[in-house]
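User: quick one, sequence for these tokens?
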């Protein structure tokens, strides 16, 4: 890949150190620029400044913060159109059930993610989803 070609940024919001390293290496070798954040302490302002083409989000953060980050992103005018891959230790059905219950609580419906993978993700499948969702396939 030529050095003058700008790589698409993929925002990674993950709490597990090993998974952050895995995702960073996978994305970098796949031709993307990983931008890694610890999670909610970073805030949406920093997420926006990264100008991501895609977000990979760990839904299982302490105190359900991953799901709250997801909701905040989907309600933010700048970020709501950025595709999101949820990566989690919980199954998709449980995540969507909890998301729907939060819709009722907050009185605001949030669409489901573009893709949902359980940990640990299969490398080629994850990279294929990233390429597809960023239009880089």
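Assistant:
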């Amino acid at each position: 890949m030529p050095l003058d070609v700008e790589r698409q940024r993929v925002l990674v919001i993950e709490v597990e150190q090993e998974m952050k390293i895995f995702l960073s290496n996978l994305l970098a070798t796949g031709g993307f620029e990983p931008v890694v954040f610890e999670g909610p302490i970073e805030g949406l302002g920093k997420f926006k400044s990264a100008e991501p083409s895609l977000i990979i989000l760990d839904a299982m953060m302490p105190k359900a913060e991953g799901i709250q980050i997801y909701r905040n992103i989907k309600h933010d005018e700048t970020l709501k159109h950025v595709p999101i891959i949820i990566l989690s230790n919980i199954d998709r059905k449980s995540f969507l059930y909890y998301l729907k219950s939060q819709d009722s609580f907050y009185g605001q419906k949030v669409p489901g993610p573009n893709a949902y993978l359980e940990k640990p993700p299969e490398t080629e499948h994850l990279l294929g989803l990233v390429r597809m969702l960023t239009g880089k396939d």
